[in-house]
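Q: Here's a chain of 252 amino acids. Please give me its 3D structure as tokens.
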Amino acid sequence: MNKKLPLVSIITPSYNASEFIGETIASVQNQTFRDWEMIIVDDCSTDETFPLLKKYAQADERIRVIPLSENGGAAVARNTAIGLAAGRYIAFLDSDDRWKPEKLEKQLQFMQQHHHAFTFTAYEMINSDGKPVNKHVLAPEQISYDHLLKNTIVGTLTVMIDKHQTGEFKMPNIRTRQDLATWLSILKKGFTAYGLNEILAEYRVGNSSISKNKWKAAKMNWFVYRKVEKLNVVKAFWCFSHYAFNAVVKRI
């Protein structure tokens, strides 16, 4: 007998994620929508992540764990999972973030009702203890390619893509901001990303050098503008100035 294919494939890269991966998996298992597979690609963790993941996979056949033979970064891990995904819809969830129980159900209904190919939702931020920090990011009604260049408001943990409409895709092999570059590549084809303005996900904020991380993100945004999207200096600077402003507003 042929095994029924899942409707949604959840893409999760993991690296030394033993502290939080259990919460992440539980948030998927607690979904009101049940027709999913979760593909977790372990990027050569040096802690107890991989043995822990194997236990979850043994207990739940919807969870698949794929170990990489060498550390390749988030893009390689995500692309490995995307290549193995059997679902029509592709969703993304990193190994320290969480979903609200109705995330998949509500987002799928939103996509199917309106025939959207690319959607995202609002999300809130939590601390290392999993407690809300009273900050959230709302989802605008829609985002085009030009809008996303100036406002990187799409949270990867909230994205869902209908690959029957967009076609197969993969992330560019860059160490950071590969998610932004991927969304831009899809929108550049003429698609629009539609926002469901309901908080359906929880993004964990780390305690390590926040200012350093923001500076790194800014530099990688510039890299995407110039090297990936190949914008001229004037347009790149124009987009970057808007990105910087919106990044500040997003966190107020």
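Q: Can you summarize the key feature?
A: The two ends are 54 Å apart (CA to CA).
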